[in-house]
Structure formats: structure tokens, C-alpha cells
Design brief:
Elements (H helix, E strand, L loop, with lengths): L25 E4 L18 H12 L8 E4 L6 H4 L5 H12 L21 H21 L4 E4 L20 H11 L5 E5 L6 H6 L6 E8 L23 E6 L5 H19 L3 E5 L17 H18 L4 E4 L10 H12 L12 H11 L27 H13 L11
Parallel strand pairs: 1-2, 1-3, 3-8, 4-5, 4-7, 5-6, 7-8
Family: Belongs to the histone deacetylase family.
Keywords: Acetoin catabolism
Protein name: Acetoin utilization protein AcuC
Length: 415
């Protein structure tokens, strides 16, 4: 196996190098054909969010950077999808795709969350094909990093659609890495919703650690992702869940992230990190009760990039995911993601380019943000300063650490 031809680390991790020649080779999955993943005009997962992200990224010249290759995704084959999905399920998706008037609600196809549309199979398999391509690029050394902001379909299960997700591209990409000889993959999911599909597909596989930070399932779909979900009998400690209370804000979320993710990443020592960056935890997103800012979401992207440099030779595949404030939040958050994956972050206080704002107003009649941040105060109390049993977030974090850390030789109180 040849994995990652260039494993150089970056300097100045918190903001990374501004020298294009120093950036790692990166691929960005994008083509307008991805807009075919479209559940209809009344559905919250609008393809407009992808179009506006690509247009905003283009305004910052991210797609033209010397180290960046833009990849048109191919439709994943049935055999590729069946590495993580049951063949009967793939056949069912094909059937409803060709006959939208005949839903299959037993498999989640034709529900309110996942309404059937003509061409559903091809549109869904194309998103999966994008993340699959990134995995293959890491395996053969064409790229060290990649991002499929149209991916992140983390709710799709082996044999059922769920939560706006038909095929689980994250799982397809991870399985390709494993089949290519990678021994350890770390999956980090910071969507507001629990990454249940990806967790369950690799539930009993010790080669994959899934870490999900999300709003607690007591108040939010899919109702799972609690600290005692720790993996199957052959993979105890491979599933990690931090179920945060509703209305969690930046400081508490970042405290939880830094109290769990870096420690386990260093203990697990993955060869590749795959991350899901759903931005529906934003305070302006109506599909969760979290209170995050674009500033905090961007910081988590930087933190995952730093972890990749520290533990996996820079090898990192990032995806999108949830995100339903399609004008104010998603394009800004994922443009930051594209820039960070390419090695050159957009400055936090950069102005949103005037031509993009004009386009949003003229095309959609919406006012666009003026700057690329929310002017949030990004400060959080590190775990090392102490545990507060009266704090709901601290109790959540401690519950996860008590369940998981001893399984990796870590002390839940001090590491």
C-alpha cells in the first residue's frame, strides 16, 4: 500500500502557512451535477447551499489555488455502495429512483425526511462517489487532503435511508481506505445530530473509531448517541459519543471537543482522519437547539487539521453534512472548510465579497452577511483547570471520558 505521497507537516497550525508552495496537495469535489441531490423546494436540505458555497469559494480563488485539484465526482457503482450497504437496499433505491410513485417506506424511501425523486439513486451515488474518490486519491498518493462538501450523509444505515441521507458516503470512503490497507481510521463528526449511520456501520470494527459531538438525543433526532454507546464486543471503545445539552454555546462546545477528541486521537494514532462538518449547530439554524457561531465551527476545522498533522501525516478527508441556513451560515462555514483543507484559511474577519452578496440579493432576494465571521468571543475553559459537577456540559464530558478513556489506557480525570 502507498498512502499519502507527501506527509509533510504544516507550520503555525492554528492558522497554517500562507505560502501556497508549502501547502499539501488537496482535492475539492465539486460539479454542478451534485445539485441533482434535491428533495424538492419545500425540503430543508436545499441544493442551493452547495451552489452558494462553490460560488463563494470561487470569489476567494480557493478553487484556483496551485495545490488544489477540483474533482468532478463519478456515480459510485453498486459494488462500491454494497461495501457498506445491503444489496437489497441498493436495489430498492434504484427501484424508487426509476418509479418515484412507488415509495418504500420500510426502507426509509418516501418518508417526510427522505421523499423519493426521479434520479435519486444516481444523485445519491454521485455524492458517495465523491468521497470514494478522495479515499482513492489518498491511497495512491494523488492528494494528502480532500473535501467533499456535498457529502457527509451520516444517517444512512446499511439497509435504510434516514435523516435526509440515502447512501452513507462517509462510510463508503472509510471502507475504501480499509480495503486499501489502512489499519486505523478516525471519524470525527461535529454535526448537530448524532452520526448514527456511520457509527453503526463500523460498530464492531476496531479499525475505525467514530467520535460524535452532537445535541443530546433526548431533544434531537435521531435520539441516539449517548455515552454508553461504546462499540461492539470486538471493538469496545471504538464508538465515542458526547451528547451535549440544548442551547450549548461556543465555549462549552469547544471545551467538550478539546476534552475528548485530541486525547483519543493521539491514543488511537489513526493513519487517516475522516471528518463530518455539518454546520446545523449554528445559532441561526432552525433544525437544532445549539448556539454555535461560524467562528467556533471554523476553529474546529483548524483543530481537526492540526490533529491530522500531528497523528496522521496530514492525511485528512473532510465532508459537509447538515446545515439549513443556506444564505447566512452554510456558504461561509464551508468556504472556511475548503480554505482550511487547502492549507490557506480565509481570515476570520474577511469581508464577504461584494459580487457574491449582490448575486444572493439579485438571484434569491436575500441579504447576505457582510463578513466571514460572527464576531464571537472564542475562549473556552480547558479541561485541565478542573471539573465542575454542577455544569451540565462537564457532566456530559465526564460521562464520556469514564466510559471510553480507560479502554484506551487513559485516566478519565486527568488525561
Amino acid at each position: 500500500m502507498r498512502l499519502g505521497a507527501d506527509s509533510r507537516t504544516l507550520t503555525g497550525m492554528s492558522e497554517m502557512s500562507e505560502n501556497p508552495a508549502a501547502a499539501l496537495p488537496a482535492e475539492i469535489v465539486w460539479n454542478e451535477s451534485m445539485l441533482a441531490y434535491n428533495f424538492g423546494p419545500q425540503h430543508p436540505m436545499s441544493p442551493i447551499r452547495l451552489e452558494l458555497t462553490a460560488r463563494l469559494a470561487a470569489e476567494f480563488d480557493i478553487l484556483e489555488r496551485r495545490n488544489v485539484t477540483v474533482v468532478r465526482p463519478e456515480v459510485a457503482t453498486d459494488a462500491q455502495l454494497e461495501t457498506v450497504h445491503e444489496p437489497e437496499y441498493v436495489r430498492a433505491v434504484r427501484k424508487v429512483s426509476a418509479n418515484p410513485d412507488e415509495p418504500d417506506e420500510d426502507r426509509g424511501l418516501g418518508t417526510e425526511d427522505d421523499p423519493v425523486f426521479a434520479g435519486m439513486h444516481e444523485a445519491s451515488a454521485r455524492l458517495a462517489g465523491g468521497t470514494l474518490h478522495l479515499a482513492e486519491s489518498l491511497l495512491d498518493g494523488r492528494a494528502v487532503r480532500g473535501v467533499n462538501f456535498g457529502g457527509g450523509m451520516h444517517h444512512a444505515a446499511r439497509s435504510k435511508a434516514s435523516g435526509f441521507c440515502i447512501y452513507n458516503d462517509c462510510a463508503v470512503g472509510i471502507q475504501r481506505l480499509l480495503d486499501g490497507g489502512v489499519q486505523r481510521v478516525l471519524y470525527v463528526d461535529v454535526d448537530a445530530h448524532h452520526g448514527d449511520g456511520t457509527q453503526n456501520i463500523f460498530w464492531n470494527d476496531p479499525r475505525v473509531m467514530t467520535i460524535s459531538l452532537h445535541e443530546t438525543g433526548r431533544t434531537l433526532f435521531p435520539g441516539t448517541g449517548f455515552s454508553n454507546e461504546v462499540g461492539g464486543p470486538d471493538a469496545l471503545g471504538s464508538a465515542v459519543n458526547v451528547a451535549l445539552p440544548p442551547r450549548t454555546e461556543d465555549a462549552a462546545w469547544m471545551r467538550a471537543f478539546h476534552a475528548v477528541v485530541p486525547q483519543l486521537a493521539k491514543a488511537f494514532q489513526p493513519e487517516v482522519i475522516v471528518s463530518q462538518h455539518g454546520c446545523d449547530g449554528h445559532a441561526q439554524d432552525l433544525l437544532s437547539s445549539l448556539r454555535l457561531s461560524v467562528d467556533a465551527q471554523r476553529q474546529m476545522m483548524l483543530d481537526v487539521a492540526e490533529l491530522a498533522d500531528q497523528v496522521s501525516g496530514g492525511r485528512w478527508i473532510a465532508t459537509g453534512g447538515g446545515g439549513y441556513n443556506i444564505f447566512d451560515v452554510v456558504p461561509r462555514a464551508w468556504t472556511h472548510l475548503l480554505a482550511i483543507v487547502s492549507g490557506h484559511p480565509v481570515p476570520l474577519q474577511a469581508e464577504v465579497p461584494r459580487p457574491w452578496r449582490a448575486y444572493v440579493h439579485e438571484r434569491y432576494g436575500q441579504s447576505a452577511p457582510l463578513v466571514m465571521n460572527d464576531d464571537a468571543r472564542l475562549w473556552w475553559r480547558s479541561w485541565e483547570v478542573g471539573y465542575d459537577p454542577n455544569d451540565a456540559v462537564d457532566r456530559t464530558v465526564m460521562a464520556t471520558r469514564k466510559e471510553i478513556f480507560p479502554l484506551h489506557g487513559l485516566d478519565p480525570w486527568f488525561d
